Amino acid sequence: MKNDTPAAVHPLAVFAATLDWQDVPVPVRRRTEDLLVDWFGSVLAGQGARPVRSIADFALAQGPEAGPCEVLGHARGSAPMAAAMANAAASHVAEQDDVHNGSVFHPAAVVFAPALAVAQQRGASGSDFLAACVAGYEVGIRVGEFLGRSHYRVFHTTATAGTLAAAAAVGRLLRLTPLQMQHAFGSAGTQSAGLWEFLATGADSKQLHTAHAATAGLMAACLAQDGFTGAADIFTGARGLAAGMSTDADPSRLVDGLGTRWATAETSFKWHASCRHTHPAADALLQLMQAHKLQAQDIAEVTCHVHQGALDVLGPVVSPVTVHQSKFSMGTVLALVARFGHAGLGEFDAGFLAPETVALRERVTMVLDAEVDAAYPRRWIGKVTLRTTDGRVLQGRVDEPKGDPGNTLSREEITAKALRLAAYGSPALPADAAAAAVERLWGIEQQPRVGWLLG
Amino acid sequence: MKNDTPAAVHPLAVFAATLDWQDVPVPVRRRTEDLLVDWFGSVLAGQGARPVRSIADFALAQGPEAGPCEVLGHARGSAPMAAAMANAAASHVAEQDDVHNGSVFHPAAVVFAPALAVAQQRGASGSDFLAACVAGYEVGIRVGEFLGRSHYRVFHTTATAGTLAAAAAVGRLLRLTPLQMQHAFGSAGTQSAGLWEFLATGADSKQLHTAHAATAGLMAACLAQDGFTGAADIFTGARGLAAGMSTDADPSRLVDGLGTRWATAETSFKWHASCRHTHPAADALLQLMQAHKLQAQDIAEVTCHVHQGALDVLGPVVSPVTVHQSKFSMGTVLALVARFGHAGLGEFDAGFLAPETVALRERVTMVLDAEVDAAYPRRWIGKVTLRTTDGRVLQGRVDEPKGDPGNTLSREEITAKALRLAAYGSPALPADAAAAAVERLWGIEQQPRVGWLLG
Prior knowledge:
2 copies of one chain form a homodimer.
Chain A lengths: L10 H8 L7 H21 L3 H13 L6 E3 L4 E3 L1 H12 L15 H16 L3 H29 L2 H17 L4 H12 L15 H21 L15 H5 L33 H13 L7 E8 L1 H7 L8 H4 L3 H11 L4 H7 L3 H7 L2 E5 L1 H6 L6 E7 L4 E6 L12 H14 L6 H12 L13
Helix pairs in contact in A: 1-6, 1-7, 1-8, 2-4, 2-18, 3-4, 4-5, 4-9, 5-6, 5-7, 5-9, 6-7, 7-8, 7-9, 8-9, 11-14, 14-16, 18-19
């Protein structure tokens, strides 16, 4: 801890400013690398998507023509703001990036892009970059937990808590003092924004949300380094985040197990290429179909027993017309899982509007389930009731969907997923270049300076 | 109106997208020019302030080294985002920029900077630029009125409604269709942010708020031009602005008198260099002192009868330690007015901590007044009770503080104010350069292309 720390500095700011890579337990370090490789695949898969291209084109037009910060998929660099904006916009669109269940927060989408940009600008070491990312994960997840379920009903937590996560990661790279980190939190929190309203028409805002969080947090940290001050108590002050944007905020969550509980390692990988709220039911359906050797045509009806958040986010999506919307359609996801055993990017693109998919989609409903809702968001239980065409009624259940910490992916699965995602990008990265980049990325901890990920 | 307008496009988006300079009544056109000149002075006064320098340095580091968009006070240009960020940050710090009473919204601070940057980039005509600014004023003010007093209790309306105002102005310059304008509103509204919490410690966030609103709105409009979509109903949707950030939102205010009521012309100029909430009482005190020929040393005690918003914003500021904080101290403002007859930038700098000021400050209190509170925010009534050292108790009252539409500034006063502000900047603009720039600015309507304001 630096000497300038007044007693009043928030412990979360002290933690983020003083976290060293040696403080991070080895299994958490390995998990951080897993999450980084997984994020890299998501960015490559997303960088060609139309809304992402719009944001990247805007970002590049606002930045210098060259610079130290890599804009992934564009074979060029720019200033930190432009690179962070473009890469963060690309992180989330394939809906394959990670998620922390308890906070319903997607840390990779808002942490890695700004941290990478600033690490490349400053020539930070690989381990310093990774430590900064852990700071971002630990802060963002706790802020998400703090803001609670009432917040998530209206606000996209990845967007709002994301500004704090980005500020923590960049602030740690900039070696902010604890007091400066607190100022960065103030400046980040007062830019916290992101409303779910876009879901009603399937608009492009999600990609704007991650871009905004990444750049707002980056700016907050850079300003703090220059002496710019922010609110001292942006979390619980009378006119702070909780006062404005939550009715059930729990301040104890901000400091829950700081330095002993590693929220980074609680983060889940997404196996299906859809909204995480669909995964528990998808896995429960898969489990049932495998156990009973069912085919898609055996399904007469599926009832998903879900938590309220799933109804809120997925409920409005009844007749998806774009592939992105269809990733928020429980019926579409279950139909693809039933037909292909997996709802990956390829399955969505080829099949989300196929007559067989639509027919199955129409036979899927959701109902609120008290047990599932009570366990959420700490545990995402999947429960489905399936009626077969020959009249059987079967109950499926998973307590931990694939990708959750207790049912996690191996490094082979993570590499394979990242390479599938890289191949999905437009233009796709050549397979050997992608494989070489992923291979290099697994060794980033040892790099004296973080270079460009695509060389 | 363009042909692509679906019936469902919000009337406010249709209005902003289709507003022509000829639609604007001549007195409103003249008032728009008044507001522009007044803003120009505020930017020049503010560009050297420490928090503004921090933001400008960050913005310039993120942008190209040269560009078509003027960064005022820096004798250089950059891309639109960097210029809008720096100029918007400078707009509000001197607390001399305009305010719309009914919405408690400072339109100049978030409208002119992004509109100027995009006008310079595109080579827009002076009248087109002015029309875009009117669109920004009309939209931002109505959004502020819509969000209501509950919003203002926690959120800085200039920051939040400011994203919409900036998007409207830039979107109009980009010739967005009404549907694109609605998308721009969605993208702007989902970035709406800005909490009052910074006031508790007098932090620098206000300057970040205007910079953020200007750039978020600019980005939203540019993205919409490229086909990027936003929420269709960001205002009143179930997970939109009102749902997340207001408990008394009134949708009728969004369309109140569109095209017939010109909110632009309702905007007030600030005469004193302090928070607007102090002005009614300051003018009431002045009126009383002039009527009774009182000097500062005749004052034993002043009680200000104020609206709740004044207590909320000014109440926490009891012992200001910086000149910026002192502009939110009712006692300081009244003390300067009593001593010098005016609380301008020079009076604050020289006198905010003078023993005579502090002694008077301590004899000023505020109490909630039912009549003043009921009239607010439509009318900002000033009422004070003054007890003199010889025991008299006097009542002072003004129904419209100086600078309000019914008690507005002449063009001579506006020019003089702008030149005083320009001379206050650091480094100060040479007086002849400032005078020439203001003179040119009065003729901007006739310019075929908006050039650099400082030539």
